[in-house]
Amino acid sequence: MISIESLISFFTISIILAVSPGPSNAFLMAQTFAKGKSAGIASAAGFATAGVIHTIFAVLGLSAILKTSPQAYQAVLYLGAAYLVYLGVMAIKDSFTQTVDSDTVTVDKKSKSVFSQALLTEVLNPKVALFFIAFIPQFVDPSLDTPSMVQMAIFGLLYPIFALPIDLSYVHFGDKIAGYFRHHPSAQLWLDRISGVIFISLACSLLL
C-alpha cells in the first residue's frame, strides 16, 4: 500500500500546514467569535468536507484544469471572492438590523447555514485546489503496486482527517476568548461587524 515513512512525512507536514495561520483559520475564528462554538465546529466540518471534494476533483483531474486554464482559474477566483464579500456584507448588515434581545435567536438561525458557507468558501478557493494537485502528488510513490490515483486519493482523504483536530483546537480557544463577549450582548453586535470585515478582507486577500 503506502510506506510508513511516507505516511509519517505526510502527517508531519500536514500538521504544520494546518497549524500555520491562514485564510481558513481566519474564517474559522470569525465564525466562532460571531456565532459561537457550534458555528466554529460546523465551519471545521465544512472545511473537512471540502477537502474530500477537492480530493475527488484532484483524482478526476478537474483541479488540473484550474492549473492549465487561466480563464477557469480567474472565474473560480472571482466567484469565491464574491461569495466572501457577500458573507461579509450580510454579517455587517445583520449586525445593524438585529436587536440585542433577538441576538441569540439570530445567531441560532445563522449557525444552521455555517457548514454550507464554509464548504462553499473552501471549494470556491482555487488556491486550495492547486494545493491538492501540487502538494499531495509529492508523496505518491510510482514504484508501489498501489496505483498512483489510489495513493492520491488516500493522501487527499487523510489531510482533512489530520487537519480537523487542529481546526477544532482553534475553535475551542476562540470560543474561550469570545466568552466575554457572549455575556455582553452589545459587544456581540460588534463581533458580527468585525467578522464581516474579516470576510471582505479574505476576499481581497484571495484576489491579491
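Next protein, fold it too.
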Amino acid sequence: MQSWQTYTLAALAVLFIGISKAGFGGGLGMLTTPLCALAFPPKYAIGMLLPLLCAGDLASLYFYRGRWEKRNLGYLLPGVVLGVIAGISFVGRFSPRQLNVAIGVIAVSFVVFQCARETIFRMEGAFKPNHAIGIPCGILTGITSTFAHGAGPVVSMFLVPQQLPKDIFVGTTVLVFFWVNWIKVPFFVAAKVITWETLRMGLWFLPLIPVGVWLGVWLNRRFSQLWFHRVILAGLFLAGAQLIFNFKFH
C-alpha cells in the first residue's frame, strides 16, 4: 500500500473517533480500528489509537458530566480488568495475520449485532444490574476492547435493558468507556502495544479528533441517521471482510 493510502485510511479512522463522540451513534466508532488496521500492522494500530480514544473520552466526559448511572461501574469494571489482562496476553501471542482476523471477526459480528439488536433487546426486557451479569459482561468488554477497541455491543447489551433515559444511557456509556480505555493504558504500555513510536504517530492525527466532532455535528444536521448508519455498517462489514480474507486486488 502506498504511503498516501496508508495515511488516508488512518486519518479516516481517527475522524470516526470524533464523529462517534459527537453523538451520531455509538456504532460509528467501531469503524476506527478496522480502518486503521488496514493502514498499519494491527498491533501498531491498536496502540496508536488508544491515546486518541482517551483524548476523545475526556471531551465527552466533560459534555455529559453528571448525566450517568455510575453504579454500573461497580458491576462492570472488576470484570473489565480481568478481560484486559486476558486480552493483552492473547494479543502478544497472535501473529499480525491472526490479529487482523480477530479484529475482522469482531467488526463483522458487530454489524450482525446492529442488524439484530432491536429483536435482542425486546427479548431481554428490563432488568436490574447485578454482579452476576456485570462481571461476565465486563470480562467480555475487556477482551473485545483490547483486541479492537470494539466493546460497544457488549456494554449496550448490559445497559439498554435497564431502560435508562436517553441522555443517561449516553452519559453512562461515555463514563464506562472513559474508565475502560484508561484501564487499558498501563497494560498496553507494559506489553509495548503503546510505544514512543505509536505516541508520535498518534500526535500527527490528534487534531483530527475535534475536526471529526465538528463533522459529526454537521452530518447529524444534514443527513438521515438511518441511512448514514447503513453506509457506515456497510463500510465496516467490507473492512472486516478484508481483514479476515485478505483479498488481493491487482
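About the second fold: The chain has one domain: 3-245.
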